[in-house]
Amino acid sequence: MRVISGEFRSRFLKPVPGDKTRPTTDKVKESIFNMIGPYFESGSFLDLFAGSGNVGIEAVSRGMHHATLVDKQYAAIKTIKENVAVTKKQDNFSIIKSDANLALNKLSQEGRTFDIIFLDPPYKNQKMVDHANIIKNLSLLNSNGILICETDNSVHLEDNISGYKLINQKNYGLTVVTIYKFLG
């Protein structure tokens, strides 16, 4: 696993040890950024199920000013910290050890908002529409913000979720990436 492009290009990142996380592959990660960017001049990024921190680190490498990386597993948080250290830009990252719903509430209470939110929960626990609604209700996405959902190919997401408009969807075999624009 590596950073594909931008400031941290070609730096290798560690995967989370064990089998409790499923990292976003380099192929899928590159495709996601080609669909939404591929480069940015600023902005804030939230990865709600960060695993190794791989996608958020890629976002900052490509020009996002800040990435917030959330995961509830100790091993994931340890790996995220090690991977963020590889960037030598730790101030561009916030790392939160928390359950996703608790983290969303905390971020809302702090008045935080994001330009892009990435959802890639464990495939057996995917509640994308529920999370999209919580994000909308807590006003966590900036106007015209982007919500990216990475799902198992057995999950069917609606074209338009209340408050969001589908802008792109790609199937990568076992993985499907669905991108929505926030209409708020």
TrEMBL record:
Keywords: Methyltransferase, Transferase. GO terms for molecular function: 16S rRNA (guanine(966)-N(2))-methyltransferase activity. It holds the Pfam family Cons_hypoth95. SUPFAM superfamilies: S-adenosyl-L-methionine-dependent methyltransferases. Signal peptide: none annotated. Its EC number is 2.1.1.171. It comes from the Bacteria. InterPro entries: DNA_methylase_N6_adenine_CS, RNA_MeTrfase_RsmD, SAM-dependent_MTases_sf. PANTHER family: METHYLTRANSFERASE (PTHR43542). This is 16S rRNA (Guanine(966)-N(2))-methyltransferase RsmD.
